[in-house]
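Problem 12. The chain below contains 260 residues. Write out its predicted structure in token notation.
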Amino acid sequence: MGYYAGIDVGSLTADAVLIDEDGKIASYAVLPTGNNSQKAGTEAFEATLAQAGLNEGDVARVVSTGYSRARVREAQGSKTEIACHAKGGLYLFPDVGTIIDIGGQDSKAILVGREGRVINFAMNDKCAAGTGRFLEVMASALDVGLDKMGDLAFESQEELTISSICTVFAESEVVSLISQGKAPADISMAVSRAIARRTTGLAARVGVTDTVVMTGGVAKNRAVVKLLSEDIGHSIKVPDEPQIVGALGAAIIAREGDGG
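Solution.
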């Protein structure tokens, strides 16, 4: 049986997915990118092979994606994040129409057509505002674990507002709120609301359909998902592991023989 792999090397994590010739997911890995994106991609790929009990020779084709896709030495081809998220989102949710992806350094909204075809998309890649990095900086300012931010927000009792869309200025607002004695839960909810507000505008630019899927690390923040759902007026579906959708799409493209 042949296998196909997708490797997505982003700014914060390197993700790899291995699928078999029937398209079934055999294994996946999510690792920190660190300061060596090429090494991170290799380690993520090797982790999926180890989990599946396979060797590199068992993999017929590898396609890379993400910021550092050109540095993935195991890949025979590459594809944009937009195309890969569309393919991966469609695989997990066949009725998907809109995909909202919030990664480490950018956010994107994708309008998806038949067979995962990208009809339209919009990106925020000029500023870290509203991205995983934004959330990471705010968690650090609050001295709260990044994985705890979403749950903490649901304990909020007072509505606060973070008005700045710039990460640096927003961090200053958070520090000011802390100095005023505002509760971390209230600040966490304000941070989540700021991300949702910014992402709502991005989604509106491409069109919001009946089935909206959210991918990327920020999709693990339940508060952001809830607020964004309220803002766009649609429930949002989140994959069991939202960080691997791009790598999954790349693996599917590898299986289809595409990817340059």
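Discussion. The domain at 96-238 is CATH 3.30.420.40 (Nucleotidyltransferase; domain 5). Students who got a different answer should revisit the alignment rule from Section 12.3.
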